[in-house]
Design goal:
alpha/beta; eleven-stranded mixed beta sheet; ten-stranded parallel beta sheet; flat
Chain lengths: 343, 343, 343
């Protein structure tokens, strides 16, 4: 690793140096672990005190701060961090293997140029894969799947038949795309499987975390919009329509036919019931249970999810519930005494 | 796809035609996407207004409705939908490959007729597989597993040693059946693994969603009863006994040794603690936390889960908690004033 | 199976026999299923009544009890059970296959003695695997992974590049170790992937459940401490640091950069937000949502998680919330009447 001068890094991110711009930075590390030749960052105030003790040569910050390290002042330190990690370390490299003889590729499958299909990966009949895709060992690409360019499907991920994957999509290990929707017609006490003849569409630049499950639609499509990033272990129900540029954090569950607008953020373990409509730019706090439509721009929290500030006040009060109950009983008694006295 | 006349469809489901029974229906689609030659359905009132705008040729409904489409009136539109999707589209077809040379089948494993074992699937020693089963790529069938007829094990699903699978069982991709139960004996600060010598039994007609984890019992069996349908990402603890014909929706968690009766419905993200007994025909609302026995026929909701209507009233009140606290304080003050005045 | 005399078992666990110490015990079973020649145990009071009806030849108990079976009295029956199951049944046996020709092992990978690498397992470039390890079918060991001795990686589990695994670590099927942390820098409405250049460290004697997802750190390490046991479907965020000898029960979620001390117990479906510090020996009740630091030794419950006994009282009161609201309104009315009367 050759490194870059701090000045070069600052120019790369449109930031400003305070200190020795000629120092060479070779790697990025954390505030507490960084050493000489390394740059670190501060974006969470919680770690501000570490500025005084860090051994890093430089720190990316939003504004001047007290530290022995040189400063790289950037408007958005976290975004600058991203740019610098990409510059100095880059994204994961994938071994060039072409199409391994130990993979299983159907004769009717087609690929663009420069794909890597690793050992024991399976590409089924009539799959159409764009160029520069990496299909890791054990990944299963079902029949009639369409995939754009520059996609990565990590080990043992599974894409069922007929799903459509955009370009620059990343699917992490053991994720499942397009399994049957949970659709059963109950008749006289038995549950009859409804063939799920729809599919899943992952638009461009989507990332799907490890062990996610994205159900195919009963009819039509389950859609994950362009640029949406889905954390690990997120379950999405059949026919759900997730808008573009959303962030769904790990362990979120979205029920069937729910729709989300663009730029929504759902924190960990949130549950969304089926057939409801969540607007654009909605933020939903961790573990919330959303049971009804949410308007554009709202920030909600709790089960049932209501305006987040209201829920925070509820959270602050709820431990007093038992004493409140006691107080009410006492008030009733005292009031009855007064009423009696006044008769 | 050849299609059927609307009259034929109505006869198939025991329904009644309003409109042109001779029209040919080739496919099933949604109210908003369906076009000419397609049938759709209304079973959720929420979508009733779409009847006026649908371009479908016909709609399955429970009772006469205002729409330009022809009507197929059926007692249970969702059940009729299932029958028609099966008739017009059918269930997923599986490529006939027999036992692939690129699979790994132990010499001591035995199969019934007409099984498909795809590339890179593994069938271990002494496994017994019935007829007409499909074992998808990367699926792992452990030693001594017994499986009935007409089962489908999708890609990369894993069945540990000794588990017993009934007939017509469907196991979706990346599900795990029979991993070790979470059983440790803690002694002087260390956790010692208790060998989990029990197993998992999936009875006939069970469906297991993608990325489910069904722990084997410490001793005895973890059982999923006949006809029970388990959604994606459901975790079932060791020794749990789930009755027949239950519906466990995605992300449900059932702790060890809990028992459920027949025809229970558990909505998304429900958690059930260990060693409790949930009766027959119990319905548990989304995200509920169930910590004690539940009697037959109950509908419960919330954490802790109580009678659902009670919880709904709690949900409606809870946002008023902070103002209630304030009201109590004011009442106390006013009452003290009155008491003082009366002295 | 040859069996042991009850006396031998008692000596093995440091316990005491009441009854015929010469009887031969061949297997361990449950109170309700055990028969002649089998031993069972009582550690959960809930099942005490089964002592009267059990057909077991012997029962492990903490103190004398009424039953027809012989007794093995042990200080910690559950720990004694573990010792006896190990003695009579042992841990899972793994078929000796050496390195299968149908696995995929990079030329630059290195192994210690006596490893089993099964069909379709993948060991990537520069991986270093200790001795006596079992790598099950379809498991993927990424480039530069280091693994100690006596590890078991079950079918289709995935370990991304560069992670470090201690000795005697067990990773269950379809678990994922070291997938990219959920780290995106949002800039002008787009989410840019931050290369996750850290890794995951699983220390000695860790067990990871099926379908777990343990994110690699952005920078530095995500750490699971020595002897910690992680249940199925647990999601751990990037940079989290879980102390030694913790128990994380299924479906727990720990957000990025959270730290846990030693000997913490997190029950099912608990969620922990990022960047907080949970002390040593903390117990967190099922479904709790932990949003702030927790001191050593605390037992917390609820969302937000507070002292467990407080939450239990809240849980007992919460169903009365609607009637409390009604009572307050009535009190206000009655008080206003009194106030008016007193004017």
């Amino acid at each position: 690793m050759q490194g870059k001068s701090l000045k070069e890094l600052a120019e790369h991110v449109g930031g400003e140096v305070r200190g020795d711009g000629q120092m060479v930075i070779k790697a990025v590390s954390t505030l507490d672990k960084a050493g000489a030749g390394e740059i670190t960052f501060l974006s969470n105030k919680k770690y501000e005190s570490l500025l005084k003790t860090t051994k890093a040569s430089a720190v990316i910050v939003a504004k001047p701060a007290e530290t022995d390290a040189a400063l790289l002042i950037a408007e958005d330190p976290y975004y600058a961090l991203m740019q610098i990690v990409v510059l100095l370390h880059g994204h994961r490299k994938h071994k060039k293997v072409g199409v391994s003889e130990r993979s299983s590729v159907a004769k009717t499958a087609k690929f663009g140029a420069n794909c890597n299909v690793y050992d024991f990966a399976v590409i089924s009949e009539n799959a159409r894969i764009g160029k520069n895709c990496c299909i890791y060992p054990g990944a299963f690409i079902g029949p009639d799947v369409k995939m754009g360019d520059d996609c990565i499907v990590y080990a043992n991920a599974v894409i069922y038949n007929g799903c459509e994957i955009g370009s620059r999509v990343i699917i992490h290990a053991n994720a499942v795309i397009g399994e049957d929707g949970y659709g059963f017609a109950t008749h006289k006490g038995k549950h009859y499987k409804i063939p799920q003849i729809g599919r899943v569409v992952l638009e461009d630049d989507v990332e799907i975390g490890a062990c996610c499950t994205i159900e195919r639609a009963t009819l039509g499509n389950t859609i994950i919009g362009k640029g949406t990033k889905v954390g690990d272990m997120v379950a999405i129900g059949h026919g759900a329509n997730i808008g573009p540029h959303c962030l769904l954090v790990p362990q979120v569950g979205i029920s069937g036919s729910a729709t989300l607008g663009h730029h929504c953020v759902l924190a960990g373990q949130v549950g969304v019931v089926g057939h409801i409509k969540i607007g654009n730019m909605v933020t939903i706090g961790a573990q919330s249970g959303v049971g009804h439509d949410i308007p554009d721009g709202a920030t909600v929290l709790g089960t049932p999810a209501i305006e987040a500030n209201k829920t925070k006040r509820v959270y602050a009060s709820i431990q007093h519930l038992p004493e409140m109950r006691k107080s009410i009983r006492e008030l009733e008694k005292r009031l009855a005494d007064l009423e009696k006295a006044g008769e």
